[in-house]
Amino acid sequence: MCHAKGTKIKKFTLNIGIIVTIVTMLFLTACKNNKGTDSGDINQEPTTTPVVTAAPTDVPTENTDNAKEEPTTLLTIADYFPFKEDAEYVYEGEGNEYAPYVVYTDYVKEDSIQLRKSNSGTEVVMVLKYEKGELTKVLSREEAYYRENFIGKTEGEAEILLEEPLKQGTEWTIPGNHKRYISNVGVDITTPSGDYEALEVTTDEEGGKKVDYYAPGVGLVKTVYNGKDYQVTSTLGKINANTPFKQTISIYYPTAEEVIHVENKELSFNTNDITRIKLEEAVKNITKEDNRPLISTNTRINSLYLSKDNVVNVDFSRELISEMNAGAGYEALILQSITNTLGDYYGVNEVYITIDGNPYESGHILLKKGETFKVNYDKVKK
Question: How far is Cα 143 from Cα 362, in angstroms, rounded to an integer?
């Protein structure tokens, strides 16, 4: 009996110990699950997840990879140097007497443009060609007071004015082994003709530095030349659209008294006008009663140009002779008037006159191939 009772007491004690142990473990677990922040606030509200809203579309977001991206499409030379017809560009200048000048467009043909630059000292004709990503000056002729189409011809060393791609750092070499390069883009330039964001092109020359500024849709808007202790600037003052190039020429007319009268006439040339046609119209038009026409109404000028040996070459149609109706003396007077008119216009002393491609030959006058008429004012009566 006693042995059996002792066994019961041990079992009871063991059961109490197990219960206490389980309760203790449950209590500790509950405390651990309800523990708050470091401040010990076990009643803190659980952290709320933030609501994310999209950035407004009108506020640019920063690009951490490239804060200032290059434009996806670069402008071309055609944008910065458009070939404009019937436009007169007037430049104001400071620094010397030749800084102000005017530019006209003589001719435009596909990828080429012929410009006439006129200042107080001279007139320069330039032909520029745009091909293979380059704008190149292929011809430059000074003292060119006459108007002739030089597109398709070359003269002197070619000079690259602009080279693509039109971005900062593009560099090339020009005659004289000088360096020319795009030194900046989007430069703010203020001129009397307007404000522009221009392409800046710098040329390092001996004894100085030239900077040209080109604006999209306009062309050259400013040039600054910095020499030793001096600066010359030319700035675009205005652009006159639909403006022809005007020239005053001297036309010599024979008279019934067998003397020659001279008359000054102003001719207007639009871009791509043909000079020989304008001159043909002018010499047929008489404004004074004493003067006689140089050529008949049906006579045509087939060709007209200045050769490399400074001789004017003019080819007339057969009507010059067949419709002249003049004796030997008066015929010589007509030919002298033609010679003086063309010689003056081109600034030379010799004129080679042909008829439908053959040397001049009439019933009174016969010339050999290559034989020219000379400018002479002996018969001119002012």
Answer: 36
* Non-local CB neighbours of 214 within 8 Å, separated by 6+ positions: 80, 81, 162, 198, 199, 201, 220, 221
The amino acid at 185: V
* pLDDT classification of 344: cutoffs 50, 70, 90: very high
215 and 287 within one domain: no
128: β partners? 113, 137
Q: Decide if 294 is inside a domain.
A: yes
Find the mean pLDDT for residues 3-9.
42
Burial class (CB in 10 A: 0-12, 13-18, 19+), 118: middle
- Distance between CA atoms of residues 254 and 336, nearest Å: 9
Spatial CB neighbours of 93, under 8 Å, sequence gap ≥ 6:
99, 100, 101, 232, 233, 234, 235
Tokens coding 105: 């467009």
* Residue where the block lists tokens 């002249």: 324
Q: Are residues 177 and 230 in the same domain?
A: yes
Q: What is the pLDDT of residues 201-249, one digit of tens each?
A: 999 998 899 999 999 999 999 999 999 999 999 999 999 999 999 999 9
Distance CA 299, CA 282 (A): 13
Give the separation between CA 18 and CA 43, rounded to whole angstroms: 32
Contact assessment for residue 73 and residue 165, using Cβ atoms and an 8 Å cutoff: no
Determine how β-strand 159-163 pairs with β-strand 171-174.
Answer: unpaired
pLDDT digits 0-9 by tens, 95-116? 999 999 999 999 999 999 999 9
Is 1 part of any domain? Answer: no
Q: Could you please report the per-residue DSSP string of 272-305?
A: T--HHHHHHHHHH---STTB--SS-TT--EEEEE
Could you give the number of structural domains in the chain? 2
Tell me which residue range forms the domain holding 325. Answer: 245-374
DSSP 8-state symbol, 69 = P
Q: Quote the pTM value.
A: 0.79
What is residue 64's predicted lDDT score, i.e. its pLDDT? 33
Residue 33 C-alpha from the chain's centroid: 80
